[in-house]
Amino acid sequence: MLIFSLPKGLKLNYLGVLIIIILVLNSKSKPLEQGVIKTTIFDVGQGLAILIKTQNYHLLFDTGFSNQSFSVAKSVINPFLNTQNIKQLDTLIISHGDIDHSGGVKALQPFLNDSQVLVSDTRNIPHNLTTKTCKTGFNWQIDGVNFELLNPPNIAYKKDNNNSCVLKVSNEKYSILLTGDIEKKAEKHLLKTRGKKLKSNILIVPHHGSKTSSSLAFLQAVSPSIAINSSGFKNRFNHPHPKIKQRYLNNNITFYDTQCSGQISMILSNSTITLTQSRLTDKRYWIRQCQK
């Protein structure tokens, strides 16, 4: 704009046109290659929301918290989808009915036309949405990426957390396990019924790092190199529990948490894992730095 405002006699206006063309061309994100998984773990405070993107497919796992005056989906997820030019979610999975996982569904409805909606619990789900129940063993493939549901079992648990949809996403080399709020009882059942299928490179920490989850046997079966926890800064539940975080570290698992890292983005190609933390890559002097 400064170049455009210069006197015409300087004959520099054409530079402004050239700069605008370069900016427009560079602003268009390159499409993902076949088999690549791009994962965004949103910074939603005490809750969970994860976007899985492949070459031509978009899946959202949980939607974060909402109440009568505030919606994480409206303030965080929807603007992100708009900036990424994502008009439609192909699949929405609500792991379970707790408000910190299902609260944003209503605000996301403009992105849910003809979407597949998979749930383990219909709480907080608008009546006009057609849903299907998460079923163990349900799997699909798209863009060279495999998706498989490992939980809940056919017979429901009494405790809703253990009925969380558990999703494994994998390409030829890497995999990520999304666990909702499962606790030790569900972990034990998964160890017994799913066995080697649990093994994944990246684990989304169950139940925000609660001491009721992340049993040692479960961690050893998944055997991740990276664990990512979604929790709120100074949350009232003290998540992640210090003993649980230490359990990950004791097993040589690199531990990230959105309350310190902010939004976490990963690209799983067929050869490498690239991970970025928004508090580091988009650091500004006014942003509080977390003491890990």
How does this structure look, described?
- The protein has 292 residues and is an alpha/beta fold.
- The strands form two sheets. It has an eight-stranded mixed β-sheet. The protein has a seven-stranded mixed β-sheet with strand order 7-8-9-10-11-12-13.
- β2 and β3 form a beta hairpin.
- It is globular, with a radius of gyration of 21 Å.
- The N and C termini lie far apart (43 Å).
- 38% of the residues are buried.
- The mean pLDDT is 91.
Low-pLDDT residue spans? none
Q: What characteristic shape results from the CA principal axes?
A: globular
Q: What is the CATH architecture descriptor of the largest domain?
A: 4-Layer Sandwich
Q: Could you state the order of secondary-structure elements as H and E?
A: HHEEEHEHEEEEEEHEHEHEHEEH
- The N- and C-terminal alpha carbons lie at a distance of 43 Å
Number of folding domains? Answer: 2
**Major β-sheet annotation:** 8 strands, mixed
Number of helices: 9
**What is the class of the largest domain in the CATH system?**
Alpha Beta
Q: What's the helical proportion of residues?
A: 10-25%
List keywords for this structure.
292 residues, alpha/beta, Metallo-beta-lactamase, Chain A, 2 domains, 8-stranded mixed β-sheet, 7-stranded mixed β-sheet, 22% strand, globular
